[in-house]
Specification:
single chain, 5-stranded mixed β-sheet
Length: 169
């Protein structure tokens, strides 16, 4: 909300708080529990800009994350954006990506069964897409959501600074 109101000092303070919480959570998540390989996908959307955050979990440990900023047509729902992203991310060219056993998303998908079938065929094993998760998966999803929001705040701040510089010319 702070970034939406262009209060960038407050947005930066919130971003720093989110990063501190994220650091603590990441340390807590590395546990003895064996979890399947999974990717966690969360989307933050504001002011016409979407951030898709992918959190990569392998053998119960966070390997890393990545933010993507796709162009989103007007009137596209978050669920539609999620479906499109999952299809393109894992099925188009694959670019050496490993399709995990589980993909956790933060919205229900209309074409979930079709996507699971396609991903399973490409991976050569069962791949599941899950939403409404509990336990550690829910904590990972919350972490991805925080990352998406923080990355979106940063992108909005950069866009505003560029606009300010342009107007100053």
């Amino acid at each position: 909300q702070a970034s939406q109101q262009l209060n960038f000092e407050e947005a930066a303070r919130l971003r720093d708080q989110i990063q501190a919480v994220r650091s603590v959570i990441e340390k807590q998540f590395v546990s003895n529990e064996r979890l399947d390989d999974m990717d966690i996908i969360s989307i933050a959307y504001q002011l016409g800009i979407a951030c898709v955050q992918v959190l990569f979990i392998r053998q119960g440990k966070i390997l890393g994350n990545r933010s993507y900023f796709p162009k989103v047509p007007a009137n596209t729902s978050i669920a539609e954006l999620t479906e499109t992203f999952v299809g393109q991310f894992y099925l188009q060219g694959n670019q050496g990506r490993t399709i995990p056993n589980s993909i956790i998303v933060d919205h229900s998908l209309k074409r979930k069964v079709e996507l699971e079938t396609l991903l399973s065929v490409v991976a050569g094993r069962k791949v599941s897409i899950q939403d409404n998760v509990k336990g550690n998966k829910s904590k990972y999803l919350q972490l991805a959501q925080m990352n998406a929001k923080a990355a979106l705040i940063t992108r909005l701040k950069q866009a505003s600074l560029l606009e300010d510089r342009y107007l100053a010319l």
